[in-house]
Write a structure and sequence with these properties.
21% of the residues lie in helices and 27% in strands. It is built from 3 helices and 10 strands. The longest helix is centred in the first third of the chain and has 17 residues, at 2-18.
Length: 190
């Protein structure tokens, strides 16, 4: 009896399926995965905008530690503005509203994180030295914090490794030093 019931159910299912019309097969594409946006603790949108501007100026950014890019011709008019992105470990420099350069950085390591916020360059020294860390050299130092935090040339391993300063590739820091002045605006997001 069970076999007969199973045969009837199977035969009915086969009959039902064989009578169905099937049209052209529709292929439904899966939606694209959501864009991966880095997790910022604090941002006003300057860092994501700077990244967009850099991609527009230089194409996809695939910078190795110590790499940097400058536009072919840097305008001489307009104030310099700096955007530092701690999430992507990138440093952006604008002249007026135009992005003119981007470089990799090494910001403050865990426990000595680089401070977020709006800053201004308050001291510039071509041959700076750290007051806190055994007179460590800080070439092309531009201090933005009264406690000694600055951006300057230094080792750039591609990850946060400093005591709180923002380290830049040497040749980038040298050229940047000539573009800025006391009062240059700096925003650090991350």
């Amino acid at each position: 009896m069970r076999k007969l019931r199973r045969w009837i159910v199977t035969a009915g299912l086969v009959a039902a399926l064989s009578g169905c019309e099937t049209g052209p097969r529709q292929v439904v594409e899966a939606p694209p995965p959501p864009a991966m946006t880095p997790a910022y603790r604090w941002t006003n949108g300057f860092a994501p905008k700077a990244h967009e501007d850099a991609v527009a100026a230089f194409g996809p950014l695939a910078l190795a530690p110590g790499d940097f890019r400058w536009v072919a011709e840097v305008p001489t008019e307009g104030e310099a503005k700096i955007v530092i992105d701690l999430v992507s470990q990138l440093f952006y420099i604008y002249r007026g509203d135009r992005l003119v350069g981007v470089a990799t950085i090494s910001s403050g390591k865990k426990g000595r994180e680089t401070q977020l916020g709006f800053w201004s360059v308050i001291i510039k020294k071509q041959k700076g030295f750290s007051r806190k860390y055994d007179n460590a050299p800080m070439p092309f130092m531009q201090m933005y914090d009264s406690k000694g935090l600055a951006f300057h040339a230094g080792p750039n391993p591609g990850f946060p490794a400093s005591h709180g300063c923002v380290r830049l590739p040497y040749k980038f820091a040298e050229r940047l030093f000539a573009m800025t002045k006391l009062g240059t605006k700096v925003v650090i997001e991350g």
